[in-house]
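Revision sheet: structure tokens.
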Amino acid sequence: MPSNVNQQVVNKILEEIQNLPSMSKLAPEKYAETGGYADEFVKGSSDLKSNQLRKIFHYIKGLKREFDTTGFDRTKVSLVIPRLAYASGRNLIPYDFYKLMNLCFEKKRCNTKEDFDTAVNFLEAIVAYHKYHENHDRHDRS
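Predicted:
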């Protein structure tokens, strides 16, 4: 698939997320299934590196575990955005991934525990499809 087609797919996903009133309105069927947003985003974002993806995922899953016991804290979610900006500024994550995560975790769409949990589930699906495609692509080259 040509790069401009990949970018069109990524842009469509970014637009769909941007148009959501809140992350909790994002149905799992839209992002979790094969061919859904997570799968298509990973296919369209070839510069996404496993190590950085795992670091971000680990940090956010840590917040989720904390919120499960202490309650949702919007302030701590706000601090995710500068971490992502730093990683993007250092070219550790692609700009499109930064934009997507910013849309998912910004206050407009991520203002409740339910919103946060949906954003985390979406990120988890991205991690899963990234690992799947990474291994699948490796086997295809063998």
